[in-house]
Amino acid sequence: MDRFWTLMTQLHVLAGPLVMLMYPLYASVRAMESTSKVDDEQWLAYWILYSFLTLAEMVLEPILTWIPIWYDIKLAMVAWLVLPQFRGAAFVYEKFVREQLRKYGGKVTMSNEEGKDCSIYGTWF
């Protein structure tokens, strides 16, 4: 029985990097090589949300250390974002992030080759 729990612990440790990084990396590369725009949106949305989750986790670390199952919750959330059956990343981006960008979006300033500012107002979408 001890070997079983040791195996389960090791699988748990490997599941995080596989689900959160390795599979999304592989799927992102495949999406870049495909002609479909749908998979590009899914994986770009995933990386945006994963980055936000990582930043939030860094800020909230003192609180999250008191939640013993935080890693399991995070793994389940990320699995929902990643799995193609759910397309969770695209769903969250479409329903929440895009709406906030439309609501509070505004000015984006970039420089062109001559060094002049090019302002874009409300043309994110």
From TrEMBL:
Q: Which domain of life is it from?
A: Eukaryota
Identify one Pfam family in the record. Answer: TB2_DP1_HVA22
- UniProt GO cellular component terms: membrane
Keyword Membrane included in the entry's annotation: yes
- Protein keywords: Membrane, Transmembrane, Transmembrane helix
User: Where exactly are the transmembrane stretches of this chain?
Assistant: 12-32, 44-67
Keyword ATP-binding included in the entry's annotation: no
Query: In which compartments does the protein localize?
Result: Membrane
Q: How does it sit in the membrane?
A: Multi-pass membrane protein
Q: Which family does it belong to?
A: Belongs to the DP1 family.
**This protein's name:** HVA22-like protein
Organism of origin is Thalictrum thalictroides (Rue-anemone)
